[in-house]
Amino acid sequence: MNEVIRQLMNHRSIRQFTEEKLTEGEVRTLVEAAQMASTSSYLQAYSIMGVTDADKKAALRKVSGQPYVEENGHLFVFVADFHRHQLMSEKLGADINDYLGATESFLVGTVDAVLAAQNLAVAAESMGLGICYIGSLRNDMQQVIDILNLPAHVYPLFGMVVGHPEDSGSQKERLPFEHIYHENEYDSSRYADEITAYDEEIAAYYRERTNGKRADKWSEQVIGMLSEKTRLDVDDVVKKQGFLKQ
Questions:
Q1: How many CB atoms lie within 10 A of CB 240?
Q2: How far apart are CA 8 and CA 122, in angstroms?
Q3: Which of 38, 142, 143, 164 has its CA 20 to 30 A from that of 10?
């Protein structure tokens, strides 16, 4: 196990940061590390928004509902971005609207942004910084678009807060290797027993972390969340931005 793998294995979300802001040099290093992630067909179909304006951070905190969206060393927002490609197509007299309206472009922009984000996360942790992904910015995608003045062919995916940790956080166990890894064909025959065992492990984690006040089982927690009708506007907003039109 080398240093990189040890760092990856030690990942945990950090939600409390000191008041120290990232320097311009740190921000540049993180973004340039993100840019070195793999990108589909060299399209580089994403942008990274840095939010430092106090009013904008407060507005994004309101969308998210999470205080650390405002209280951090730096707030990044990752967006899938084909706006530059649209501008290039106009300059070259080409029509790429069929591609931009297809599911493939939606997937490419999303995957490119996620790969860049994970590079940034790993780089940040290697610098002794803490990070937390902020998917709750999708609670109101249109509001995020308005706050960040995003043009057509750009849609927000998630934020990431980065900063100097005020505490070490805690690490939740992941599903077992045997449950996640399938060789040659998909096999769910062991799922029921594996999930039951995992539920007990996660319940023990919550009991220890909360001194017995919580004992959530993983399956009940995630199915309860998935059963709620949330973020139903995402489809309409993405289509409004020029994607998934077919």
A1: 15
A2: 7
A3: 38
Residues 192-225 pLDDT 10s = 999 999 999 999 999 988 899 999 999 999 999 9
Half-sphere exposure of 84 (CA within 13 A, CB side): 9
pLDDT at position 168: 86
Cβ density class 31-61: b for 16+ within 10 Å, e for less: bebbeebebeeeeebbbbbebeeeebbebbb
Cα dist from 125 to 6, 120, 223, whole Å: 11, 9, 31
CB 153 within 8 A of CB 241: yes
Q: Which residue has the tokens 């060393």?
A: 73
Per-residue burial over 184-198, b if 16 or more Cβ lie within 10 Å, else e, is eeeeeeeeeebbeeb
* Residue 106 to residues 111, 158, 173, 184, Cα–Cα distance (Å): 9, 15, 31, 28
Would you state the pLDDT for residue 246?
61
Instruction: Check residue 175 and give its pLDDT.
Output: 96
Q: 141-146: long-range contacts (C-beta < 8 A, 24 or more apart)?
A: 141/231, 141/233, 141/234, 141/237, 141/238, 142/233, 142/237, 142/240, 143/59, 143/63, 144/60, 144/63, 144/77, 145/237, 145/241
Tokens linked to 116: 């860049």
pLDDT tens-digit series, residues 156-166? 999 999 999 99
Low-confidence ranges of the chain (pLDDT < 50): none
N-term to C-term CA, the chain? 47
pLDDT for 187: 96
